[in-house]
Amino acid sequence: MSTIPEMNGETLEQKLKNGENITVIDVREDEEVEEGMIPGAKHVRLGDLQDRYTELDKEDNHVVVCRSGRRSMKASEFLKENGFANVTNLEGGMLGWPGDVSKK
Question: In this protein, which residues make up the domain named Rhodanese (predicted)?
Fold first, then answer.
């Protein structure tokens, strides 16, 4: 059982609208991201995360997102194992995201 907390799309959308300091990390593949991503999200493909996680600030609040929530849970666990204290998985991924999306 994972120890990673989850947040639903409505809660994340509200937190972002309220200006909370959250770094959204989208771990989907390039072609998935082309269909749209959460505005302001940072795109780091799951396959690249091992090489790029040092670009992220360990002190930030991170919400990790993929299409349905499975890959982002793997990414969240990886970040937690590498010293990231505040990592949350987006429950249901982009399939559960109710808000606007931005195109790359």
Answer: 18-103
